[in-house]
Amino acid sequence: ILLFFIHKDFGKKSFPYGNRRFLQNGTTIEIYKEPENEYDPYAVRVEIDGVGCVGHIANSARTIRSGCTSSKEICDMIGTCASATIVEAYPQYAIAILNEAKDNCDEQPL
């Protein structure tokens, strides 16, 4: 189980579609390792097909919910990317279950 936080601008001008339409239970998401991320070498971004990046997986002890996996642990579990399915969606975050880890991905540019 993984927890990701939704970018604060999602649903605003830079994300005109809003989060309610895309972030629903059952929505498939793709997650990608970001080893070059300047803030966190274990960063894992969350994308929705046709929308792009909507957030990042939690990695801080203060943001990880009980029973959820950190982005550092996910980096150890997957190749370069994976798919997951949202099981609980909230305004600021969502919880998803990992479906399939992949070694090679057709990674979309940010």
What keyword list fits this structure?
110 residues; mainly beta; 6-stranded antiparallel beta barrel; 10% helix; 37% strand; globular
Strands in their spatial order, largest beta sheet? 1-4-3-2-5-6
Low-confidence stretches: 13-17
User: Rough shape?
Assistant: globular
* Largest sheet entry: 6 strands, antiparallel, barrel
Class per helix and strand makeup: mainly beta
Q: Overall pLDDT, averaged?
A: 80
Strand segment tally:
6
Helix content: 10-25%
Strand content: 35-45%
Count of DSSP H/I helices: 2
User: What is the rounded distance between the termini?
Assistant: 24 Å
What is the ordering of alpha helices and beta strands? EHEEEHEE
> What Rg is obtained from the alpha carbons, in whole angstroms?
13 Å
Describe, in plain words, how this protein is organized in 3D.
Helix content is 10%, strand content 37%. It is built from 2 helices and 6 strands. The protein has helices spanning 19-22, 71-77; strands at residues 2-6, 28-33, 44-48, 52-57, 81-89, 93-102. The protein has a 6-stranded antiparallel β-barrel with strand order 1-4-3-2-5-6. Strand 3 and strand 4 (52-57) form a beta hairpin. The longest helix has 7 residues, at 71-77.
Gist?
With 110 residues, this protein is mainly β. The protein is 10% helix and 37% strand.
